[in-house]
Amino acid sequence: MATLELYSKGESVWIPDPGAVWVSAQLLQDYSPGEKHLLLQLPNGEEVHYPVGSPSDLPPLGNPDILEGENDLTALSFLHEPAVLHNLRVRFLDYSSIYTYCGIVLVAINPYDQLPIYGEEVIDAYSGQDMADMEPHIFSVAEEAYRTMTREEKNQSIIISGESGSGKTVSAKFTMRYFAVVGGAAQQTSVEERVLASNPIMESIGNAKTTRNDNSSRFGKYIEIGFGRKGDIIGANMRTYLLEKSRVVFQASAERNYHIFYQLCASRELPEMRSLKLDAPEILSAVLHLGNVNIQASGRSSDWSYIDADDRSLAVFSKLLGVEGPQMAHWLCHRRLAVGGEMLVKPMSGQQAVEARDALAKHIYGQLFTWTVQRLNSALRSQRGQTKSFIGVLDIYGFETFDRNSFEQFCINYANEKLQQQFNRHVFHLEQEEYVREELAWSRIEFSDNQQCINLIEGQLGLFDLLDEECRMPKGSDDSWVRKLYNQHLTGKPHPHFQKPRMSNSAFIILHFADTVQYECDGFLDKNRDTVFEELVNILKASQSELVAELFQQQENVSPVANGSVRSGKRATREHKLTVGFQFRQSLQMLMDTLNSTTPHYVRCIKPNDLKEPFMFDPKRTVQQLRACGVLETIRISAAGYPSRWTYEEFFSRYRVLLRGPQSQEQAQASCRWTLPQLISDPDQYCFGKTKVFFRAGQVALLERLRAERLRTAAVIIQSRVRGWLSRIRYTRILWATVTIQRYCRGALARRLALTLRYTKAALVIQKTYRMMVVRQLFLMIRQATITIQAFTRGTLARHRYRLMVAERAAVLLQARVRGWLARRAYRRVRAAVVFMQCCVRRRAARRELLKLKTEARSVERYRELNKGMEVKLMQLQLRADQEVAFSLSFCFFFHSHLYLMHRLSSSSVCGHVCAERVSQAVSQAAKALRTELDEERRKYQGLLREFTRLEQRYDNLREMSLLTEVHNHTKAIGCKLMNVRVDSALSLPPGLPAGVIFLCVRQADCSGDQTRARSLCSAAVTKHSSDVDMTALWLKNACVLHDLLTQHSPKQTLESDELVPLTTDLSDLIRALSDLCIQGYQQLLSITETRLQNIIVAALLESETIPGLSGTAVKLVMSRKRAGSDPRTVASGDAPTMASVLRELGALHTALSRQDLPSTLMEQAFHQLTYLISASALNSLLLRKDMCCWSRGMQIRYNVSLLEEWLRSRGLQTGGAVATLEPLIQAVQLLQAGKKTEAEAQALVQTCTALSSQQVGLSILTLYTPHSDLDERVTLNFIRTVQGLLKGRSDCQPPQLLMDVRRVFPVTFPYLPPAVLHAEQLVIPDSLKISFLRRV
Fold it and tell me: Is 597 a catalytic residue?
């Protein structure tokens, strides 16, 4: 019973409602003990009086708004049916969240719609995460089972139950898919694929359409997935329970047979079915044709029957199964009896023959089903060693109640009774373990035990015992069995769980744990016997089909829990062991033993409506299933003890305002122990543990009320202080304004007086200045006239003196010029004669030297000597050419001077004129001959220079090709030395040195014509892989350099320089191999870094407290409380990853790439891939963690992301898109920090979050947003709907998935950078490479 003080005005309560089961109402006045009515207001505004006979009749209280939509039902302050129903409805309809925790149980509501929450990116997000940190999901339960198995080395079980159509099979498939992905083997095998591929096969032969489900499983299935020592799947095994074989021959209205029959009929025309000649489809076809066999009754009382010999269905049936048609027709209508030691054949009536035909059809299908399961188990059996541990997935039928319930429903409900008992005891055990671990003084919690109902079914003289006994009777019938039930459990010793219907004598009622069910007794004995006559089985054993014979010959070696029994003429001893009921009890007991030996995990599937409409919630049907599946019992067990549990630190952070004494986290426990008795007077309502404080139901709400009152009182005090402060501020402002006005008025009067004085003084200054200006102008005019007269006089005298000096200077200069001209004329005559004689002598010497040079140039032995002195000769030739040009110019000058002299002399003498003509002709001829000879010498010199350049290049090429002469014997040694160099030595090498050495070796081998050796050298480089970042970057650099060198010298490549010599060997395939090696090295480099980052991304970006104290004071109510039964993984605070850890890993990669001088574009692509991984991993975790969706955490994350952005920009990596990949995470954080109230803010959010999809904005971040302090508010549903409407209207270019694909790989492009021409003398090979056997020539 809740505390009566909580029933105050304004509180919400729940009252029963015939339509909605429970509706919320608000108290309009406080409740006082003794009042007979409560005044309530319904949601529609209507006021009602709720009758209250005693305090126990008070309606259940509603939970605080802060707990609305809580992902764990046991975290609610008030644990009762309406609170559970309301919380599930809010999460399902408002938040589109189909999963909710209820302690150790995962409640899964079938959405009847495809949701984007099962992709591989979601599996990656849940892999390795703590169950309490993530939003509820089927993958979270699977991860908890997997991690518990690997950590504790104990077998696990996942029990999935629920009504037909609630999604059990789909949940089981997703669970196995998770194990196949997380527990996949290192090498690709087909074990995981086979485990997943077995599901459609079993659904085909074991599922059918019913009135409640289009794909209802008509059998129970328990799959054990075996794991090896490394946690990888190495095998699986499947066990099945109680196949509904009666569906083969009978289907209720609006239901269908098993899927396989319809699939077989739909594919009958496919050529694959005609060509495969499979036996299994033939057997299924035979079952269909057997149902069409026409059995006709005859005789007076129709006491015997027959089948026409030309019955087409029987002929087809016999042909398909390879049996004799007449024999089958005979034994379908006759049976063999043993009377007095003799065998008699007795005809059967038409009804008996039809029953025998149907029994045979069911038996054939059951045997085929068992054979299929055996074949699947054989294919799933472990082939890679012994299974260390396993995880079992139980997909079993839920509690069923129909208008007419028969033997199948009886067995199904019996199995659910056993599972419910195991579930109740396990929940009780976990609850008591928590109390023992905290060392609480506890009393035993009473829980509803259904052992009496189980004893009624399986106990001595129970329903199964009486049923088997009646089956052994020769004339046993359903009616006699019912009478025995009445006599045993109703008349003789009444059983509390057994009743008799009022209007029927052929039915009985059992009060199950989930509901009361009435069973009709018709057919119980036949279904329990499940008898097939031995004669029909013997015919099938003799079939010509190997598969058919195998199916029925195996029946001799089947275990006692096999389906069905065979009746022969002689009744077998202890035949009751072969009844279906006995077999089912044995198999169920084996299942319970298996479950009890494992750690169970529970999934309860809920069917929200019977119309199969997406996201439609029927409260009546939901409550019915919650009661049936034990969820409410879990709540009741939890509420009976201490459902609310807080660590002392969490309690101190939340209720610090109520505590007294020391206000520090270190003394939180002492403060709690000292203050709680003063807050809660009843000591039975709370209890102190070692690390937690426990509260009974309703006490947290009481503490919340006390906290709100304390905060309200504090707010009033703060308001009074603030109002007084505001009044004082207002008075101070008025006083300041008055003083200011007075000051301004006095200042205005003072300025007016100062202006008058200033004007008077200005007038005096103007008068004085004007008088001074008039006198000054007169003085300046007189002075200017005087100066002008003086200037003209002085100028006249100076010009007269200047003209005298110029005349004297001209006479002296004329004399000097005449004398100089006469001296220069005499000098030129003498110099011209001397120069002419020198030219003649030098021309003769040059001809002799040219002949000598021509002789030497024709000698090959002089090439090497030319190489030594060629530079000197070139300089001499150039000097000689310059001298010839100078001589030519001198001669031309002399010739023109001579002509000038002759012209001067021509006026005086005719003889001189003739001499001048002769001299002119001689000089012209000599100049022409000299010019011709000079041109010839110049052409010869240029030719000699070209020949010298060609020979020099050829000499250099021959010298480089013969540089490494001993490579032929050391090809393998070179590759081995270069590839296995030590790490410290390798990092000290210049970038690309090993690639350069290998290329020179390849070129030498190519020049010598050894193509095999050239290929082997290239192949030696395509072998290196490392797990170290520095070494991987080193060999990536060498692979790129070698690839570019081979491409540059490829015979197919256009040479860009005359110095490049193409290779003769076509190495295109090796170039492609090197290109692939570059890609592999790049991926290996990223894989190493991604492996190191994977485990620290979420902890560093989302969880690390980079800004200390920002979120330490804001703790949400019960936010950090771990789920019951969960074993959280603790991490030492000193070892918690931070942003420094992430930047350290990125810095190591950047240093390795920079040290090897890799292209900047390649570095940008690498960090673009890594930042995408960081952004996707962090965003995926943020979208699945409710504790991260708050304002304070958003501030922390934004600061962490800014550190990463700053690091990228400081290294110039922002241009490659590395910063752009962080945009989704940045926008998600901005969404957490932005306002979320008005429509304008909604529009701003939609315009801002362009990199986020509609599901990420509307269905995840906004719905998960949780206030961590009283200053923040939860996002309203109206605001979420507004945002969703705006998101539908925008043209969303983002993919519709909820999470980002962390496995996305961006294509990489390696830039082609042709290296400089490589020469052997440029390489400096250190001794650490140990290739001293190479030598240069």
Answer: no
Picking from 240, 247, 250, the residue whose alpha carbon sits closest to that of residue 201 is 240
Would you state the structure tokens that stand for residue 646, as one six-digit string? 């807080």
Which pLDDT value is given to residue 1118?
Answer: 39
**Alpha carbon distance 1265, 57 (integer Å):** 37
pLDDT tens digits, residue range 941-970?
A: 777 777 777 676 666 655 555 544 444 444
Identify the H or E element spanning 1281: helix 1277-1289
Examine the residue annotation and report whether 476 is marked as an active-site residue of this protein. no
pLDDT of 1210-1229, one tens digit each?
A: 988 888 888 889 999 999 89
Residues 6 or more apart from 911 whose CB is under 8 A from it?
A: none
Whether 634 and 101 have beta carbons less than 8 Å apart is answered as: no
Question: Over pLDDT 70: what percentage of the chain?
Answer: 80
Residue pair 184/192 in contact (Cβ under 8 Å)? The answer is: yes
At 31-87, the pLDDT tens digits run: 888 888 889 999 888 899 889 888 888 899 888 777 788 888 887 878 888 999 999
Distance between CA atoms of residues 201 and 164, nearest Å: 19
User: Considering 322, 398, 581, 975, which one is annotated as catalytic?
Assistant: 398
The residue type found at 1077 is L
Query: In the 3-class helix/strand/coil scheme, how is 390-442 assigned residue by residue?
Result: EEEEEECCCCCCCCCECHHHHHHHHHHHHHHHHHHHHHHHHHHHHHHHCCCCC
Residue among 87, 210, 216, 1177 flagged as catalytic: 216
Task: Specify binding-site residues for ATP.
Answer: 162-169
Would you state the structure tokens that stand for residue 346, as one six-digit string? 């007795």
- Of 90, 107, 238, 256, nearest in space to 168 by CA: 107
User: What is the CB-side half-sphere exposure of residue 358 using CA atoms within 13 A?
Assistant: 16
322 part of the active site: no
Residue found under tokens 């019938």: 477
Catalytic residue among 71, 97, 157, 164: 164
Whether 81 contacts 59, CB under 8 Å: no
Identify which of 429-438, 465-474, 1033-1042 has the greatest average pLDDT: 465-474
User: Which ranges in 630-698 belong to alpha helices (H)?
Assistant: 631-640, 648-654, 668-679
- CB count within 10 Å of CB 937 equals 17
Active site residue 666: no
Of the residues 400, 408, 431, 1145, only one is catalytic, namely 400
What would the mean pLDDT of 1234-1250 be, rounded to a whole number? 86
Residue in the structure block whose two tokens are 């947290």: 700
Q: Is 1026 a catalytic residue?
A: no
Q: Choosing from 148, 169, 207, 1138, which is the catalytic residue?
A: 169
Q: Which pTM value belongs to this model?
A: 0.72
Does 400 qualify as catalytic in the annotation? Answer: yes
Q: What is the pLDDT of residues 1004-1048, one digit of tens each?
A: 777 766 667 666 666 655 445 567 888 888 878 888 888 888 888
d(CA 935, CA 739): 107
Q: Please, which contacts does 372-377 make with residues 24 or more away whose CB atoms are closer than 8 Å?
A: 372/201, 372/202, 372/205, 372/280, 373/202, 373/238, 373/240, 376/198, 376/201, 376/202, 376/238, 377/236, 377/237, 377/238
Give the per-residue pLDDT at 776.
92
Q: Is 216 a catalytic residue?
A: yes
- 1015 token code pair: 């290929």
Spatial CB neighbours of 200, under 8 Å, sequence gap ≥ 6: none
Q: Using 50, 70 and 90 to split pLDDT, how confident is the model at 1237? A: confident
Kindly indicate the confidence band of residue 498, based on its pLDDT and cuts at 50, 70 and 90. very high
Catalytic residue among 165, 350, 996, 1125, which?
A: 165
Catalytic residue chosen out of the listed positions 161, 217, 401, 1254: 217
Contact 13, 48 (CB under 8 A): no
Specify whether 169 is catalytic. yes
Kindly report the average pLDDT of the chain as a whole number. Answer: 80
Which H or E run contains 843?
A: helix 699-857
Binding site as annotated, residues: 162-169
